Amino acid sequence: MGLFDRLFGKTKRDNPADASWQVPLVQQVCIAMIRSIPDEWDTVYLVLEPTEKGIGTGLSHSAITRTLAADFKLHDTDFVTPNMDVLAATRQLELGFVSRNWTFKRAIISAKQDSEGGWDIRSDYEHDE
Q: Which of 51, 34, 42 is nearest to 91 (CA)?
């Protein structure tokens, strides 16, 4: 981080949560998840966390679920294990963060099917303060 950034902080466009580069990568993650879930599911969630070695060394993946528990733990048997397509897509997202020297504490990738059969995707990030 340069002197200017230390004095004034990063600008909003430097905020990884607002970065447009993420959109196609999050779409890839969601497409891979949607392809792996049962047809009757209309929501899908995946929680990602850096390993203890930090971002860039792989991510810890939750199960893919229909609902998101407040404690991010699995509470029922209605889940899908992330497959290689999901893992490859999340790796690309992780490498995007690495190339920008950005990190997160937890990422929640989700998609919800709309009334017309399309999917609304979302990515939310928690950061250490």
A: 51
